[in-house]
């Protein structure tokens, strides 16, 4: 049975649609006939107020808004004939007055103001321009914007052919815009956070601050979908020529609503929707590489245009580069590299303590390791995404020490940056001074080690117990591929080249997210008459199952009884090898089944969200467009794994 939306949520949605011009009062009353009596006077007042100029106003107290909404939730039967409800004066700090019968429409004034957004500094986003041109629609004319401009609710903007920019909201949430991308800020409010953007075309990379406070909402609207977020890192792409929307999640989970369907999209998953229907939910392709920095350093990956992802010396974390996420724990900072853009990057390390450190770049082709001595203040490692043998590979150059201070990554001030600095300062005051580490005389040359060695030579009984818990719906979908880095690897025998080649094929298949490729790799492991080689290949699969994301992708082949013969053969082979491989495999299947059940349950229980049928936004009249900015809406390719063609033109 479909669960009805709460009244305050209905009011929020209707007010936003009316204020932005995407629906009329009649549209909203038609959608929610059960609440016509409450909605009609409220929305009529909102529609009238929307035509008036909005002055500056401070953000209302969230407690007063909650009290007002609580009063609205009472049904007409529950209300006495004369009721006392919070008034505009009460909500903004004054007394109260009585609302009687038809005078209930006066409450609309309070709702419109409580939920409205004045163009105040607290209710505006900050624009950072990294490259190219960025424009804003001003009275039917596109006008160029400048770095540092503020955008409030109602602002409509776009990037040019080479334009790259970022919006930073008051709480620190950010949206990075790729070239030829257009969006409108429909709603922007704080306390609680209520941000809604409408994406018309292009590609956006979202880094949203986690916020579970009552009434908090971050929503991305595309032509046919609604993406709801509490706090996560994800990407949305819109092809304006077809109306196709692609959503992929790099960290956390989002909820995608289109037509009568709602589907959770977790870490490592991708969804495609078109014409108010979900076309597919699949594993998102990712670049099977990770970068780990150990030691007393603040590290960041910087692109040629100044965008970066990493951590500042003062503790502020920033994620401006599409396809790269970062995390840190106990002086170990990890970068997970997914579907990143081809080209050149630089890893920059800034010292924030005493001691030496190490950099490890792990790719399907092996590991590159670099030792950082204890005297270098700033270290740079140039990197480049290349295509080798038809596969994307991140290759590192030579480590470079420098005494100069690297260019500062531009980060707009927000609640998140202030909180991070305060936390870092408090930690520095309470933590004992870091012990000094012996300093090597020189920086060592990088040494390459084949990554499959550890997994193929480890004894089955020594493999780690999996962290996937049976019955956990989202465990498998919310973990990044983890490859443990040992600063001083144990020397092992040279692996069999056939096993090394198979390990790379399996990693590439899992990274692609394509079931056909994964199925082919698993069948290959069980084929042939060479018993020793089969056991070694199965050991590679068992090692891959240690990681939850890999396990999720392998187990997805077997949900709902699919590929039963392959599943049974793999079970037998894992059992014959000994160790915990069989148990990990079974746990992964349970987790994959639970994930599928969760998605199906949400799809059945969604409250229909009708397609906007209200008054459409009037078309923008033709106007002069600066050089390099298209006058039409371009077709944007969906997120895919970089190919040789895409990389060939990279600088």
Break the fold down into its secondary structure elements and pairings.
Elements: H1 7-20, H2 25-31, H3 36-50, H4 62-72, E1 82-85, H5 88-91, E2 97-100, H6 106-115, E3 125-131, E4 134-138, E5 141-144, E6 150-151, E7 156-159, E8 164-168, E9 174-177, E10 182-189, E11 194-207, E12 217-221, E13 226-229, E14 233-239, E15 244-251, E16 253-258, E17 261-266, E18 269-274, E19 277-283, E20 289-294, E21 297-303, E22 308-311, E23 317-319, E24 324-329, E25 332-337, E26 343-351, E27 357-363, E28 366-372, E29 378-388, E30 391-396, E31 400-402, H7 415-430, E32 447-449, H8 452-457, H9 497-512, H10 515-526, H11 531-544, H12 548-555, H13 564-577, H14 581-605, H15 644-648
Parallel strand pairs: 11-12
Antiparallel strand pairs: 1-2, 3-6, 3-8, 4-5, 4-7, 7-10, 8-9, 9-11, 10-11, 11-14, 12-13, 13-16, 14-15, 15-18, 16-17, 18-19, 20-25, 20-27, 21-22, 21-26, 22-23, 24-25, 26-29, 27-28, 28-32, 29-30, 29-31
Structure description:
This protein is α+β, with helices and mostly antiparallel strands and 651 residues long. The chain folds into four domains: 7-115, no CATH class; 121-283, Sandwich (Jelly Rolls); 289-433, no CATH class; 468-482 and 496-603, no CATH class. Helix content is 27%, strand content 29%. It has 15 helices and 32 strands. The strands form four sheets. It has a 17-stranded mixed beta sheet that branches. Strands 21, 22, 23, 26, 29, 30 and 31 form a seven-stranded antiparallel beta sheet that branches. A six-stranded antiparallel beta sheet has the order 24-25-20-27-28-32, with no helix packed on it. A hairpin with a 4-residue loop joins strand 10 and strand 11. The longest helix has 25 residues, at 581-605.
């Amino acid at each position: 049975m479909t669960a009805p939306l709460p009244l305050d949520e209905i009011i929020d949605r209707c007010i936003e649609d009316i204020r932005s011009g995407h629906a009329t009062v009649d549209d909203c009353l038609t959608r929610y006939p059960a609440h016509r009596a409450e909605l009609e006077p409220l929305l009529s007042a909102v529609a009238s107020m929307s035509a008036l100029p909005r002055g500056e106003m401070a953000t209302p107290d969230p407690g007063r808004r909650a009290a007002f909404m609580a009063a609205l939730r009472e049904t007409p039967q529950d209300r006495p004939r004369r009721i006392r409800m919070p008034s505009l004066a009460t909500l903004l700090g004054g007394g109260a007055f009585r609302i009687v019968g038809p005078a209930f429409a006066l409450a609309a004034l309070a709702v419109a103001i409580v939920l409205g957004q004045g163009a105040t500094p607290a209710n505006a986003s900050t624009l950072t321009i990294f490259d190219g041109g960025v424009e804003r629609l001003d009275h039917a004319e596109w006008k160029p914007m400048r770095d540092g401009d503020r955008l409030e609710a109602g602002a409509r903007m776009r990037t040019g052919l080479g334009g790259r920019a970022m919006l930073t909201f008051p709480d620190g949430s950010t949206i990075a815009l790729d070239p030829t991308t257009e969006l409108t800020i429909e709603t922007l409010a704080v306390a609680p956070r209520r941000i809604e953007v409408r994406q018309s075309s292009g590609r956006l990379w979202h880094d949203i601050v986690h916020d579970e406070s009552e009434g908090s909402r971050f929503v991305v609207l595309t032509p046919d979908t609604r993406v709801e977020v509490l706090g996560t890192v994800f990407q949305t792409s819109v092809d304006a020529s077809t109306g196709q929307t692609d959503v992929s999640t790099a960290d956390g989970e989002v909820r995608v609503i289109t037509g009568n369907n709602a589907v959770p999209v977790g870490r490592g998953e991708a969804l495609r929707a078109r014409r108010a229907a979900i076309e597919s939910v699949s594993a998102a392709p990712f670049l099977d590489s990770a970068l780990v920095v150990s030691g007393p350093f603040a590290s960041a990956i910087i692109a040629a245009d100044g965008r970066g992802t990493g951590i500042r010396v003062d503790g502020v974390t920033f994620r401006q580069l599409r396809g790269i996420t970062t995390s840190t724990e106990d002086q170990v900072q990890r970068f997970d590299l997914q579907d990143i853009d081809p080209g050149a990057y630089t890893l920059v390390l800034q010292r924030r303590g005493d001691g030496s450190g190490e950099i490890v770049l792990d790719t399907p082709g092996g590991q590159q390791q670099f030792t950082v001595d204890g005297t270098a203040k700033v270290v740079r490692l140039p990197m480049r995404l290349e295509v080798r043998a038809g596969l994307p590979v991140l290759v590192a150059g030579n480590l470079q020490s420098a005494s100069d201070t690297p260019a500062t990554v531009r980060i707009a001030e927000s609640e998140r940056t202030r909180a991070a600095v305060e936390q870092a300062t408090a930690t520095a005051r309470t933590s004992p001074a870091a012990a000094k580490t012996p300093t090597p005389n020189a920086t060592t040359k990088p040494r390459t080690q084949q990554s499959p060695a550890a997994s193929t030579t480890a004894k089955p009984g020594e493999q780690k117990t999996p962290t996937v818990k049976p019955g956990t719906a989202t465990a498998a979908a919310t973990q990044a591929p983890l490859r443990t880095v040992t600063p001083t690897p144990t020397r092992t025998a040279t692996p069999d080249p056939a096993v090394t080649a198979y390990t790379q094929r399996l990693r590439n298949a899992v990274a692609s997210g394509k079931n056909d490729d994964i199925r082919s790799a698993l069948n290959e492991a069980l084929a042939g008459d060479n018993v020793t080689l089969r056991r070694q290949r199965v050991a590679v699969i068992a090692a891959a199952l240690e990681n939850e994301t890999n396990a999720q992708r392998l187990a997805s082949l077997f949900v709902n009884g699919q590929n039963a013969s392959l599943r049974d053969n793999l079970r037998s082979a894992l059992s014959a090898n000994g160790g915990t491989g069989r148990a990990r495999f079974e746990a992964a299947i349970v987790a994959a089944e639970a994930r599928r059940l969760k998605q199906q349950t949400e799809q059945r229980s969604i409250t229909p969200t009708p397609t906007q049928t209200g008054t459409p936004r009037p078309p923008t009249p033709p106007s002069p467009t600066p050089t390099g900015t298209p006058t039409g809406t371009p077709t944007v390719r969906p997120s895919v794994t970089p190919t040789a063609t895409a990389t060939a033109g990279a600088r």
